[in-house]
Write a structure and sequence with these properties.
Blueprint lengths: L4 E6 L7 H17 L2 E6 H4 L14 H12 L2 E7 L7 H8 L10 E8 L7 H12 L3 E2 L4 E4 L3 E2 L2 E2 L2 H14 L5 H8 L1
Parallel strand pairs: 1-2, 1-3, 3-4, 4-5, 4-6
Antiparallel strand pairs: 7-8
Helix pairs in contact: 1-6, 1-7
Length: 185
């Protein structure tokens, strides 16, 4: 059986980044647990055409491929750093280029990072409504991590790792028992 397609997209335009590291930690666990084939992108992956794109067709080939990866994914991991209580503007701009029905029913693990706990509600007040508009199935457990949860861009917090495990466990409801059996082999 073919491996499922898992795409992580991070609304960050710097590398390395804690947001990318968090999405990567979730993707690695999902790959390990379910045999999903992860593909990770960030705003740098999209390329310079994003800022001037008024529609999907205005993106260059690289940017269109990132959007196609997002649309074609069997499951998504979405991550963003927190800027002034919300996601980044270019992240939202890319999401705006996706057809509103393209993500319908798709399972999505939501993640975000920020300087401290004060930004933790970004997931519930910003990301969940955004993907609700797309009728995506945002999983109940989201993951927020603060600066102190990382060392050298690696997730080191045991409570946050537990939260990652919980979110990834919820992803299992979207994959057949046959797929899960293949992943366990």
């Amino acid at each position: 059986m073919a491996r499922g397609n898992l795409v992580g997209f991070v609304g960050n335009f710097s590398r390395p980044s804690k947001s990318f590291a968090l999405v990567e930690a979730v993707a690695n666990l999902a790959e390990e647990r379910y045999g999903l084939a992860p593909r990770l992108h960030d705003l740098i992956s999209v390329g310079p055409s994003l800022g001037n794109a008024r529609s999907y067709k205005d993106l260059d080939e690289t940017g269109r491929q990132v959007v196609q990866d997002i649309i074609a994914a069997d499951a998504l991991i979405i991550g963003t750093p927190t800027y002034k209580g919300s996601y980044t503007g270019l992240f939202k701009h890319l999401i705006d280029l996706i057809d509103p029905l393209a993500l319908q029913g798709k399972p999505v693990i939501l993640t975000a990072t920020g300087g401290g706990e004060r930004h933790a509600l970004i997931v519930e007040h910003q990301l969940r409504p955004l993907f609700g508009f797309f009728m995506a199935h945002t999983l109940p457990s989201a993951v927020y991590a603060a600066d102190r949860d990382f060392t050298d861009y690696r997730l080191v917090s045991d409570p946050i790792r537990s939260r990652v495990e919980q979110a990834v466990a919820e992803l299992g409801a979207f994959f057949s028992s046959a797929r899960l059996a293949v992943a366990a082999e």
